[in-house]
Amino acid sequence: MALRGLTALVLLAALSGTAPESAADARPLTRDLGVQVTHAATHEEPGGVTITKVVTIVVENHSLEQMRTSMPYLHQLATTYAYAVNYTAVRHPSLPNYLAIASGSTHGVTDDGDPAAHPLRGATVFDQALDRGKTATIYADAMTTNCQMTPAYPYAVKHNPWAYFVAGRASCRKHDVPLARLQPDIEDGTLPNAGMIIPDLVHDAHDADLGTADAWIKSQVQRIQAGPDWESGHLAIVITADEDDRTSGNKVLTVVASRDQDRKVVTTALTHYSLTRLYESVLGVRYLGGAARAPSMSAAFGIRTIAS
């Protein structure tokens, strides 16, 4: 009788599209809440409200395990909404990863040089948004002038990808703004269709501990969640890291939160190019570079977009 019962449970799990948890990385976060584990980009139609806005926050140089054990607020956000445990950065060091997220390519960059050393051709997701008649904004912590192209500690231009693209320079000077602009946009319900919040070198855990970054991220996310864009259900917040600390195969924790996001642990093999693709799926534009071949974040997380 016990054997038949076990067989029935296994059959039920197979028919329902769920499976017993098998990824060791998922266990510490799923054990308490029993969230659904998705092992691949499913064939199910994404449900809920259509996401029309994405805002990404990037942590610096920490692995999946470091982030989920040393960032209690991010851990809570992950288990309340959804997170990926098989998401990897593109390479080392920082700059190529930011370029990858913003444009679907590293453009051959292998260092953290300033825009003067790397004047890049091509478009970014921010340019794509504006060309489509939508909105785009980068909010840069500690930046003192729009689209600042030289570092001034604690502002790091290597974390501000739009500043590197020559064709988008005029738009960068208008829409790549200091962090002070974030709060008015939250209150007015005018957060962008393609957005990024760039912490400074202290708040992103580059030059401070993860607890400092966790507290800073908490303050930004809670402000956003108090605003009309979040309440509408059309906004998704993505929190990831540019790269790990070179100890974990470049695997980083990536969290997706929106008002109606189902709780999930996603084990699909995603990369920063998948994040590029998510922006473009939300915008309804063509996929740039590696985004065209990257696994879909919208499918993996069950996010309804214009392209769904």
Architecture overview:
It is a single chain. The protein has 308 residues and is α/β, with parallel strands linked by helices. It has a single domain (31-301), classed as 3-Layer(aba) Sandwich (Alkaline Phosphatase, subunit A). 35% of the residues lie in helices and 16% in strands. The protein has twelve helices and ten strands. It has helices at 2-16, 27-33, 64-70, 72-80, 94-103, 125-131, 169-175, 182-188, 210-225, 228-232, 272-283, 297-301; strands at residues 36-38, 53-59, 82-88, 136-140, 176-178, 194-198, 235-241, 251-258, 264-266, 270-271. Strands 1, 2, 3, 4, 5, 6, 7, 8, 9 and 10 form a ten-stranded mixed β-sheet that branches. Helix 5 (94-103) packs parallel to helix 11. The model is unreliable at 1-45 (pLDDT under 50).
Q: Secondary-structure blueprint of this entry?
A:
Layout: H1 2-16, H2 27-33, E1 36-38, E2 53-59, H3 64-70, H4 72-80, E3 82-88, H5 94-103, H6 125-131, E4 136-140, H7 169-175, E5 176-178, H8 182-188, E6 194-198, H9 210-225, H10 228-232, E7 235-241, E8 251-258, E9 264-266, E10 270-271, H11 272-283, H12 297-301
Parallel strand pairs: 1-9, 2-6, 2-7, 3-9, 3-10, 4-5, 4-6
Antiparallel strand pairs: 3-8, 7-8
Helix pairs in contact: 5-11
